[in-house]
TrEMBL record:
Keywords per UniProt: DNA-binding, Transcription, Transcription regulation
Ranges in a coiled coil: none
Organism, scientific name: Streptosporangium jomthongense
InterPro entries: Homeodomain-like_sf (IPR009057), HTH_TetR (IPR001647), Tet_transcr_reg_TetR-rel_C_sf (IPR036271)
Highest taxon above the source species: Bacteria
Protein name in UniProt: TetR/AcrR family transcriptional regulator
DNA-binding region(s) from the entry: 30-49
Keyword ATP-binding: no
Domain HTH tetR-type: 7-67
């Protein structure tokens, strides 16, 4: 197998693996099933990736890389919690339609019984926690809300909520209750506006003008 053919086979297997997990779940993602979807011999799963789990992790890496690029671009224009809430809702709906979070959720579920997979999932979750923390730090950093609820803690809460919402979606056939959660977030965000105001720090000049002794 030449280099170009090998690269093409890898791409087909990665795409087939992601689609198989989205439609059949982790339990249905065998080497034979994935290879059949890719139109190749199942032995190539092991030749290129060493097994099914490494292939599924490669598929998760590919999806995460694409989404991270898109979402960084989406949130960079957000300046308020209201705007973040609107963008988060759009991201959730896009992920739901494309099945991105389903891939992650299936692997999280599988990691309960497979400790070696758990460590890999945790490693791949950290960049997303960092991404959410950096976004929140930019939007609310230095505000009373950030002191009350540090961006790192909020990032953990956001990732946990997002994963939980995706799992619950499977029980919410018409998505009405899930959509209601995001509607609630958009209603609450404007009410937290005062807590995100960054008040200027008072320097020596300001303290002298109001009669306070200089530092």
């Amino acid at each position: 197998m030449n280099k170009q053919a090998g690269a093409e086979t890898r791409e087909r297997l990665i795409e087939a693996a992601a689609e198989t997990v989205r439609t059949e779940g982790y339990a249905g993602a065998s080497a034979r099933t994935i290879a059949k979807a890719a139109g190749v011999n199942s032995a190539l799963v092991f030749y290129h990736f060493g097994g099914v789990d490494p292939l599924l992790l490669a598929a998760l890496d590919r999806a995460s890389e694409q989404r991270m690029t898109d979402y960084r671009r989406a949130v960079e224009r957000a300046r308020t919690l209201e705007e973040l809430a609107e963008i988060a809702t759009a991201i959730y709906r896009a992920d739901l339609e494309a099945g991105h979070i389903t891939l992650f959720s299936e692997l999280v579920g599988a990691s309960i019984a497979r400790p070696e997979l758990r460590a890999e999932i945790v490693k791949r979750s950290d960049p997303w926690i960092d991404f959410v923390e950096q976004t929140l730090e930019r939007v609310i950093g230095g505000s009373p809300l950030a002191r009350l609820m540090p961006p790192r803690d909020l990032a953990y809460a956001a990732i946990t909520f997002y994963l939980g919402v995706n799992l619950f979606t499977h029980l919410d056939a018409d998505r009405s209750r899930t959509d209601a959660l995001f509607t609630l977030a958009r209603r609450v965000a404007p009410r937290a506006r005062l807590l995100t105001v960054r008040f200027p720090r008072r320097g020596p000049r300001a303290r002298r003008q109001d009669g306070a002794p200089p530092s």
